[in-house]
Each structure stands twice: as C-alpha cells, then as structure tokens.
Amino acid sequence: MATMPVAGFPPARADHVADIVVRNAKIYTGDPGCPQAGAIAVKDGRVTVIGEDADVVELISARTRVIDALGRRVIAGLNDSHLHVIRGGLNYVLELRWDGVPTLRQALAMLREQAARTPKGQWVRVVGGWSAEQFAEKRLPTVAELNAAAPDTPVFVLHLYQAALMNRAALKAAAYTKDTPDPRGGQIVRGRDGEPTGMLLAAPSALILYSTLSAAPVLQGADLRTSTRHFLRELNRFGLTSAIDAAGGFQNFPDNYDTVVGLARDGQLSLRIAYHLFPQTPGQEIDDLRRWIAMVKPGDGDEWLRLNGAGESLIWAATDFENFVQPRPELAAGYEENLETAVRLLLENGWGFRLHATYDETIRRDLNVFEKLAGEGLFPHGNRWLFDHAETVSRHSLDRIAALGGAVSVQNRMSFQGEAFVRRYGAAAATETPPIRAMLDRGLTVGAGTDATRVSSYNPWVALHWLVTGRTVGDLAIYAPENRVSRETALSMYTQAGARLTGEHEVKGVLKPGYYGDFAILSDDFFTVPEHDIPHIESLLTVTGGRIVYAAAEYEGLDEAIPAVHPTWSPVAHYGGYQATVKPSIAGARQAELMAHAVSESEQHRQWRIQRGFAPDTPTTVFDTCFVL
C-alpha cells in the first residue's frame, strides 16, 4: 500500500503531530552523523525526526499523511545550481520539447502533428534540451524536412547555442529577406540567389538565435502563471525542490519576475528559487546595477523566493560564448575597466555575483581584476561569488579562485556538446573539460546543474549520469576515471553544494531535524542501478516544505492540483515535457525474454516437424541451413 492507515497508534500530542511521515524507506540523508534512515517526519515544513519506523510512530495522528515508501530510495530534494527557471516557466507550454526523444523520425512526427494543431499566427518552437547526437540518426533535421512537416505554420528549431533552423513560414514571419543584414556575431545562411535558406548560425554569439525567437508570440496574463506552474511541476517530476535562477538574455527585472513573485505571494511555488539579476543592455550595465542596488538587496524574500545576487553576466563585453563548433571568441581589449567598476559596486554594497566564463583565457582576465580589488580588501570579504561553466579552466586559475574565496558551478553542457568539442580540440583536451576533480581537490564548493532550458535538458539525472560516467547523450566517453566522481559526491554537488551557493546550507541540502522537509522517493535506487539507467530515474513522490508537489505510480493523485495546461493546443498538453524511454537494463531484459520465447517456440516447431516426419529425430548441428556447404 502506498498510504498506511493510522488506526491503532497511540494519540500524539497536538503540538507534536507530524504533517507527513514517510516510512519503510531507504533514506540517504547526506548527514555524516546519520547517513542512513528508514523513516522521516515533517511538521510545519521542517524535518522533525529522521530515524526508523519506530521513531515516528508517536508523531502520527489521524491528520498525519503517512506514506509507505515500499522500500524505495529517498534522497534530499535536488537543487539545480544553474537553471533558467524563470524564463523557462514563462515559455514552457509554448514549446515542443525534444528532450529525451530517441530518434529524429519521432521528433519530426511530433513536429508535424503539432503544426497541424497550432492556430494561425502561432509558431511551433523547439527551444533546446536536445542534441543531434541523442538521435539514432546522429544528425539535425533539414530545412526541407521542416518545410514538409509544416508548410504553412512557422517553425523555429534551436540547436544548442550553435544554430537554429527555420522553415519558409518562419522566415516570412520573422521578416528575413535577401536584404536583411547579418547581425554582429551571427550569420544568416543564404543560397546562391542570396535568399535566406532557413539556417541561422551563432558565429559565435547566440544573440541572433534569441533575437529571432523573440519575434514569436508570447503568453499573456493568467497563462504565464499556468505555464510556470506546469514547468515547476515538470521539474518536481525529477525530484527537484530548489533551483538557482541564472537570469539570462531577454529576462528583464522586475517585469519578467512578476509571475514568480505573484506565485510566491500566493503560496503556489512548488520549487524554491534563488534568483539573480542580469543587465540586459550593453553600455547600460553599471546604471542597471546601481538602480537595482537601490531597490533590493541579496536575501530579500523568503525561503521560497529570494534574491541571491547579480549575474550570470555583469558586463556584456566580458561574456564569452561556448559555441564549440566555432573558434574561441576573442574578447575585446579593455573590458576590464567596466568589469572592475561593476564588481567594486557590488561588493561594496554587500552583493555577491556569478560570472559566465567558458574559457580559461576569459577567467584569467577576470581574476586579474579580482586580485586588484583583493588588494583593497574586497576579496575574500564574505560575499558569495562564483564562476559558471569554466569548461577549460586551468589548475593555476583554480588556485587563484580558491585564494579569493570563490566557488564554481558546473553544468553538463558537455553531455550535449562533447562531440563538437572533441572534433575541434581533440579527445585529450576533452578529458578534463571541465576539470571537476581538480576543483573538488582544492576544496572549492562545486555546484552542479544543467543550464537548461536552451542548452542542456532540465532533467537532472542526465547531468548526474554525466558526472558519474563521463559520457555524452550520444554515449561518447569523454572523461577518464580520474575526472569522474562517485555517486555520493555527484549527489552532494546537486544538493549540499547548491545550498552553500545561496547561503542556505544550514537549512537545506541534507535531511536532518530542523532542515527543510524537501525530499523525493525515487523510481530506482540511484546508488545501485546500472550506470546507463541513471538518466531514466524519476521521482515517484516529491515533497517540498512538507507539501506533496508531485506524485506518480502508487502515489498518483496525492499531489496538489494545478490548473490544466492552457492554451489547449499547447505541445505540453499533448506530449508533456521530457520524453521518458525504456531503461536500457529493462530493454535488455526484455530482449532476452523475447529471445527465450523465440527459442522455446523454435523447439516446439522442431518437435512438431519431427512428429510429422519432416525432420530427423536427432537435431542437426547446423543452425542455419543457408551456411551448409
């Protein structure tokens, strides 16, 4: 039974009664003082008891919700340390997700069906979370295939930060013609006649991709809330209970934050969000930062929604682009002066920050600025700061980051771009891109995340698989064993490290009394499943602050109700989000089962032939008569 009756238990004191109890579980707490447990009790959103079934009996009354974990693994809620959750929520129900789709054939079929139900004036948009390497065909769709699938409905397909494909209808809707100039850092691919072909290239800047996407219709009013709630529910599906929002392009403050602020005010967030502020206009960054410093301060908010600092970009000129099919971008000389002004302003006003940096060449230049400010006592000074991504950071730069009190947040962008990196820089260079073990060996806080939704998928188990195995979604092994981490370490990077990056490590990231009641009952035991099954793990029951925010399988129907997906033609209403596929271990077992059936049927057929004189009673040693000489 998924739920347990409480009749026969002694009555608990009213002030001692748990709101929710999970029993018969295999709990990995993350707490060295009590690493394993069998039961957990939560009251008023916090863990009150972690122990065994007998320890929670006295906390149960008729109003306690008692959940039988059925012997399954329970972990602390996952925390994505770099997720564009606010922007993703505002667009979620408009997007056709190819996350997890195993073949291009299936992806194009989904697109064709969605185009048929999409009303005039709307676009079909596939915006990140997939790679050509995940498809059995190992290739991108062609523009011709998009035109065939949707001759009249605009289609925009984003592939990582590298390129976008548009059909004829989308080119018309975006007003791209022979006379449209290439934007700086981007290329509109043209045919012999000079007309756009439908391919856009980041060369190396992704701004051409995002600015084109911004021409598509957006949600309005209540649909923004509904979309965000469904996106958060989708994240809860995988055991996520927290995320650090990295802001991003086309995410303006405060306008684009109104939806999550409203949901937080109404108690309707199912995911805890610590957010950042990202200056949107080149040349106006310092003015934006000054304005925000006068409006808000880090820590403003509550345990569900709070400001964490600035970034992931502070100065546009300091931002490198991780388009590994293009050469490393050469950043303009002299950006350090503006970066110094921005960082000084933040630190003097008690603001932490995060900084996008893909390449060590960028990180070295940024560290020169920080070390200059350290001479004035501004580093380390108690304000949390970190580098995001850091794929090619050197060991020397890691030493400098550690000396300045910094941290790092890594994402599994190499899961989706590893093959492109290897083609450009070679397999040897890829073995430590990024050098995760070297980061941990220096005692740095290293948070893990996805950088979803426009690059990697938001599925955290794909990222955890990458950390543990060093393999891409195309199954290319890129990391040597010495740059991989254990499952316990990977989980701590996805729980405890994220809490340290937001200063919440004394209330979040482990399961112990006094900490938030955030946890997930998993479909499979992360610590024992075969490595290739890790990306297929989901949560069957996710609890955030003592609230059941997602429930499936035996627990279906126990979670909070949310409004139906709207608009009704939404791709999410028909396909959902991440496309789950059969676990490889099950697929293999099923194949073996079918083979056993085939062998059995073959033997029955042989006996039938023997009985009728069509075959000798002694079996032939030849398996296939085609090979008889």
Features:
alpha/beta; five-stranded mixed β-sheet; globular; disordered C terminus
Mean pLDDT: 93
Secondary structure: helix percent: 25-40%
User: Which class of secondary structure composition applies to the elements?
Assistant: alpha/beta
Largest sheet: 6 strands, mixed
Approximate shape: globular
| Unreliably modeled segments | 4-9, 620-629
Strands in their spatial order, largest beta sheet: 3-2-7-21-22-23
Distance between the termini: 61 Å
Would you count the extended β strands for me?
A: 23
Protein name: Amidohydrolase YtcJ
Domain Amidohydrolase: 65-550
Structural topology:
Blueprint: E1 20-23, E2 26-28, E3 36-37, E4 39-43, E5 46-51, H1 53-56, E6 65-68, E7 73-76, E8 78-83, H2 85-91, H3 104-117, E9 124-127, H4 143-149, E10 155-159, E11 163-166, H5 168-173, E12 186-190, E13 196-202, H6 207-213, H7 222-236, E14 240-245, H8 258-265, E15 272-277, H9 285-295, E16 305-310, H10 336-348, E17 353-357, H11 360-374, E18 385-389, H12 395-403, E19 407-411, H13 413-425, H14 427-430, H15 436-441, E20 446-449, H16 460-469, H17 487-493, H18 496-501, E21 519-522, E22 539-544, E23 547-551, H19 571-575, H20 584-611
Helix pairs in contact: 2-7, 3-4, 7-8, 9-10, 10-11
Would you mind describing this structure in some detail?
The longest helix is centred in the C-terminal third of the chain and has 28 residues, at 584-611. The strands form five sheets. Strands 3-2-7-21-22-23 form a six-stranded mixed β-sheet, with no helix packed on it. A five-stranded mixed β-sheet has the order 9-10-11-13-12, sandwiched between helices. Helix content is 31%, strand content 18%. Mean pLDDT is 93; it is low at 4-9 and 620-629. A hairpin with a 2-residue loop joins strand 22 and strand 23 (547-551). It is globular, with a radius of gyration of 26 Å. Helix 7 packs across helix 8. By secondary structure, the protein is an alpha/beta fold.
